[in-house]
């Protein structure tokens, strides 16, 4: 492991199945995992930012793309890499237009997810 600091991944998804499955996998891989069912919680972070945000596009009452735009517009938080996920494969471009650093369509292979996370967190190291 190149860094002595354990990397933190925050999962913002209102599907408990995704949060549990992905959270367990990430913890197994050595990441610290935080999660929320509300994307707006990410905007309330004051410090102790995650090394990466795994953000679902469709959450109850919230559009992850709006959350991403607000996050990237924040001078302090804009450096947090955002990996957006969605069950809609054709939404990739709008996710990227909203400022996402990468996109992954659900259902996804864990190896694809891990590869994207490793690439995005390496940039912020």
Account of the 3D structure:
By secondary structure, the protein is an alpha/beta fold. It has one domain: Response regulator (Rossmann fold, 3-Layer(aba) Sandwich), CATH 3.40.50.2300. It has five helices and seven strands, in the order βαβαβββαβαβα. 32% of the residues are buried.
Kindly report the average pLDDT value. 91
Structural class: alpha/beta
In DSSP terms (H or I, runs of 4 or more residues), the helix count works out at 5
- Which architecture would the CATH scheme give at its second level? 3-Layer(aba) Sandwich
Query: Which shape, going by the Cα principal axes?
Result: globular
Along the chain, the helix and strand elements come as: EHEHEEEHEHEH
Percent in helix: 25-40%
CATH topology, by name, is Rossmann fold
Uncertain runs: none
Sheet-strand content, in percent, reads 15-25%
Distance N to C terminus: 11 Å
Q: How many structural units, i.e. domains?
A: 1
Q: How can the largest sheet be summarized?
A: 5 strands, parallel
Overall strand count: 7
């Amino acid at each position: 492991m190149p860094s002595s600091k354990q990397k933190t991944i925050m999962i913002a998804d209102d599907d408990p199945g995704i949060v549990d499955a992905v959270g367990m996998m990430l913890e197994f891989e050595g990441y610290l995992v935080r999660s929320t069912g509300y994307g707006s919680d990410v905007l309330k972070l004051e410090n102790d930012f995650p090394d990466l945000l795994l953000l679902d596009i469709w959450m109850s009452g919230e559009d992850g793309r709006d959350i991403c735009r607000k996050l990237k517009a924040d001078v302090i938080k804009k450096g947090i890499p955002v990996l957006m996920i969605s069950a809609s494969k054709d939404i990739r471009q709008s996710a990227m237009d909203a400022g996402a650093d990468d996109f992954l369509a659900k259902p996804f292979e864990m190896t694809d997810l891990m590869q994207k996370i490793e690439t995005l967190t390496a940039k912020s190291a």
